Amino acid sequence: MNQMMNIPFLDLKGINHEYAEQLKAACNRVIDSGWYLMGRELEQFEATFADYCGSQHAIGVANGLDALTLVLRAWKEQGRLRAGDEVIVQSNTFIATISAILENDLAPILVDVDPTTHNLEIDAVERAITDKTRVILPVHLYGQLSPMPQIMALAKQHGLLVLEDAAQAHGAELAGRKAGNWGDAAAFSFYPGKNLGALGDGGAVTTNDAELAALVRALGNYGSRIKYQHDHQGVNSRLDEIQAAMLSVKLAHLDSDTARRRDVARYYSEHIRHPNIILPCVETASAHVWHLYVITCPWRDELKAYLAERGIQCLIHYPMAITEQQAYSDLARTSRATRTPLHGSVLSLPIYPTLPQEQQRYIVAAINQFTAPH
Ligand SMILES: *Cc1c(COP(=O)(O)O)cnc(C)c1O
């Protein structure tokens, strides 16, 4: 083994350091403007982000969870959803996807994911449709688009709404159409570690529905469209001027950052050779933006410990099934997921635009030398 390296799972400092001068200038601009909420920075970022996604509207909100929650809430306000309605969603996702559904008194119906892509499996969705189903909520997991052409066709056939959880998939594209521009609405997160990350919390809703856009905007601002006039019972969920300014700087570099993520992924996929390790499945290169590079291995815990001993930090997305979480164990009653959950075998390797090539080589060499216990 070569000299020991120390490789963090994510190097946020290094990622933001590349744009430090621009970020600091943008921050100063906001400080000097004397205007900190609902101003020109937000307006400009929303316009640019909508344009980037190819959708007509983008509404900045406080975080990704709120983006999901507010869309569902708006659909309830519009009478398109009622308490108790069923939302079909994959069992393998971050908890926020599920909380947004429960927060709105809707019923998450968990279904199996495709064992190769770990995204929604269309047959499983179809089998879970009942006369109470109103929404399909695909999560573009790890940064790879869900099978959207099939999901949209199925939704149309059954008169269902589609909400994309695009928190991990900024810029993922299939057939010329980006994440956030497939469903009736989409939710993005700008959590610092996401592919488009703020320097704090942030999120956005995208949609081509002008009425929905106006309603989401009102709901996130105390239900108000006109100051001190409250037509809805809303909440406070706003993307502030400083974060909007940070995001405008970083959005300009998103495509080149994604290209560098793809280079790392390609390097891993071409060079990791191990009889006990399954590499991530990529159907169309443009449809994956590599928020995470997730391998599966039956000796995952041993592999994770082995890599940690060599200074390589890996994480598990996600270590428990939703139904195993104490707060969500009730969902097991209605769950339609039957396959063995993936959480015992998945392992996420370090991947980010600034990951040096020699570190990539070191990671690959270490993995290829791993001996599975017998
Ligand atoms: C990060 C994430 C969210 C939540 O975003 P926050 O900004 O942290 O609230 C929702 N869904 C998925 C799939 C995520 O990865």
Short description, anyone?
This protein folds into two domains: about 15-250, Type I PLP-dependent aspartate aminotransferase-like (Major domain) (Aspartate Aminotransferase, domain 2), CATH 3.40.640; about 255-370, Aspartate Aminotransferase, domain 1, CATH 3.90.1150.10.
Give the SSE map.
Blueprint: H1 12-17, H2 20-33, H3 40-53, E1 57-61, H4 64-77, E2 86-90, H5 95-103, E3 107-111, H6 122-128, E4 133-137, H7 148-158, E5 161-165, E6 173-174, E7 177-178, E8 185-189, E9 203-207, H8 210-219, E10 224-226, E11 229-230, H9 241-251, H10 254-271, E12 293-296, H11 300-309, E13 346-349, H12 357-368
Parallel strand pairs: 2-3, 2-4, 4-5, 5-8
Antiparallel strand pairs: 1-9, 6-7, 8-9, 10-11, 12-13
Helix pairs in contact: 2-9, 3-9, 4-5, 4-8
This protein binds pyridoxal-5'-phosphate (PLP).
How would you explain this protein's 3D organization?
With 374 residues, this protein is α/β, with parallel strands linked by helices. The protein is built from 12 helices and 13 strands. The strands form 4 sheets. The protein has a 7-stranded mixed β-sheet with strand order 1-9-8-5-4-2-3, sandwiched between helices. α2 runs antiparallel to α9 (241-251). It is globular and about 65 Å long. Pyridoxal-5'-phosphate binds next to α4 and α5. Residues 63-65, 93-94, 96-97, 139, 165, 167-168, 189, 191, 201, 203 line the site of pyridoxal-5'-phosphate. GO terms for molecular function: pyridoxal phosphate binding; transaminase activity. Keywords: Aminotransferase, Pyridoxal phosphate, Transferase. InterPro entries: DegT/StrS_aminotransferase, PyrdxlP-dep_Trfase, PyrdxlP-dep_Trfase_major, PyrdxlP-dep_Trfase_small.
